[in-house]
Amino acid sequence: MSRLLRIPIIACLLLLSMHGYTYASYASKMDTDSSYYFADGIISQQVLANYLSRSITQAELIASEGCYNDGPYPNKEDDIRMLKNIGAKFIGRSVYSWGKEHFFLMPSFWANAKAAIDAFHAYDSTVVFQAAVFEIVTENVEDIPVPVWVFEAFGLPVEQRNFVYQAMLNKEGRLVDHWRKGSSVPDITQMETKLFFYYLACRYMEIGIEAIHFGQAQLMAMAGREAGFAAWKELLDKVRLSALTVARRGTVICDSHLPNGGMVVDGKLLFDYVSFPLRLKEIIDEPQKVELEVGYYDGIYQKTMGGITPSGWSCERSLYLVEFDNFGISKHRDEPNWKDHYAWGYDEITWFSKQPEDYRNEFLHYAHQWVRQTDPYGFLQMPGSRIITGAETNRYRANTQGPNCPMGKNQENTIKAIWGKTN
Predict the structure, then answer these.
(1) CA 254, CA 58: separation in Å to the nearest integer?
(2) Hey, what's the torsion of the CAs at 186, 209, 349, 72, to 10 degrees?
């Protein structure tokens, strides 16, 4: 059955779910014996929390040679071993492109990622792999043809053409050439941006992806809150509609970095959960030491918005996770500064990687416990593999160090122990 012919059936199901009917019908199945059960566009609060409580950043895990954004990724097979050993359930940022749209024209980009997902699901079919659609688009997007089904999903006349870079940019010039010349922040209110993001979301779901991180959604909404939120709602509604038949369990879990705590339209949350950096506060009289604090800088703790979730259940505040973010290093390395978001001059994962092993392990215990005790809606996403800056290697790796991963930083057993203490 074609995508077009399926739409009336899908629309009926989505309409039911928007009124809470579908959620009620599935809620009885989501019991303690089905801790990771979700289906048909519905994920319960408890199941979502279960996944976030076992989430780990494993950047580009399922990408393959020739399709890496940030250089070599050796000894990846040891990461698979580690993830199985610690019991990971949500593999964050497992595949993405940062301004490298030519990846999407490479059959190996999609086929190898699908093979990696399928292989892991043969071991544990409940594990969720997350892709990312970031706040960047380059002129190279014009090499990608627009599929017929993308036009059909938005009710547009079918054309034979490629995506148009200029049509994705803000008409007032906001954030145009923001990253470099010919590389901009796309404007979500532009139809071309929605078409491109929908294309990416569907392609990812087709290979087994069940979660998508949509970068800095508020940045892409530009200055128009009402128009920007409406555009995100239109896109996400269509992505979820497609997920009912394209995603492996009929569901896609969507999040974004949302510094104001959420996006709400008519009392309904647009994203399933919020993600945000940890926002580490330097302890001035203890060099390299940091702490977490409610209200520090733009941290998300106790700030997420409430409403009706995309799955139909109500929450006082949205669930969220905090992660060890990467964004480069400052000009004041090894010096504290509460007026910026660096930790002793470094991004969060680079700072973490620089610390002695004992303090890295101590800090994971501290951060996990602090987040859970400070805010019942919050979860710490563990660091597994992520790009760092200005170090002897390009990636932090949590693996136990050994011949199969000589660059491992030895947080594997700590993560396993922390997760072993919680539900």
Answers:
(1) 17
(2) -90
Instruction: Band the pLDDT of 422: cuts 50, 70, 90.
Output: low
Q: Rounded to whole angstroms, what are the CA distances from 42 to 18, 38, 100, 137, 309? A: 10, 6, 32, 31, 10
- Is the alpha carbon torsion for 363, 364, 369, 374 positive or negative? positive
CA distance 312 to 151: 28
Q: How far apart are CA 164 and CA 331, in angstroms?
A: 37
Decide: 255 and 213 in contact? Cβ < 8 Å: yes
User: What is the rounded CA–CA span in Å between residue 92 and residue 61?
Assistant: 9
Instruction: Please state whether beta strands 137-138 and 183-184 pair in parallel, antiparallel, or not at all (unpaired).
Output: antiparallel
Tokens representing 155? 């009710």
Rg for the chain, CA atoms, rounded: 21
pLDDT in tens, 298-319: 999 999 999 999 999 999 999 9
Q: What is d(CA 201, CA 205) in angstroms, rounded to the nearest whole number? A: 6
Alpha-carbon gap, residue 259 to 277, rounded angstroms: 9
Structure tokens at 8: 């009336």
Q: How confident is the model at residue 26 (pLDDT cuts 50, 70, 90)?
A: very low
The partner residues of 264 in beta bridges, in order of sequence, read 269
Do the beta carbons of residue 382 and residue 57 sit within 8 Å? yes
Q: How many other β-carbons are positioned within 10 Å of the β-carbon of residue 211?
A: 26
Beta bridge partners, 379, equal 321
392 pLDDT band, cuts 50/70/90, is confident
Element (H, E) at 378: strand 378-380
Strand partners, 282: 290
Other CB atoms within 10 Å distance of the CB of residue 360: 19
pLDDT tens digits, residue range 215-242? 999 999 997 789 999 999 999 999 999 9
DSSP state of 280: P
Ramachandran quadrant class, 405 (left: phi over 0; alpha: psi -120 to 50; beta: rest): beta
Confirm if 256 and 273 have CB atoms less than 8 A apart. Answer: no
